[in-house]
Amino acid sequence: MTSPSPSAGTDAIEPPSGCPVQLASDVLAGKWTMLIVQELLTGVKRYSELQNALPGISSKMLAQRLRMLEESELLTRKIYATIPPRTEYRLTRLGHEIEPVILAMTGFGRKLAATQDTDDKRQASLPL
Fold this sequence. Notes:
Blueprint: H1 20-28, H2 33-40, E1 45-46, H3 47-53, H4 59-71, E2 75-80, E3 86-91, H5 93-96, H6 99-125
Antiparallel strand pairs: 1-3, 2-3
């Protein structure tokens, strides 16, 4: 019989070192990361196209997320020596592997929205 671990009985779950879910979560975390990847799934985009497609994202946050995705080898950046300089971003093969995750999130988001709409209608029909 094994003795319980020191954290047995607590709600905290410590992910094991090298856990693939934790690694994916670390890379894809943040409000904007998945939205940027979703935009790039349709093809090559320039910085300004991404900024226009994501209302509310600051230039600093977009640059930071793009840099992180590039460092994680999920996208590539190509700078053209033009005036003004032109920069294009595209997903790598690994970056395209996120598409099924985004499709699953889309389906879940639709179900969640439908549930919330139903709850809102139910609340509205209750007598005051």
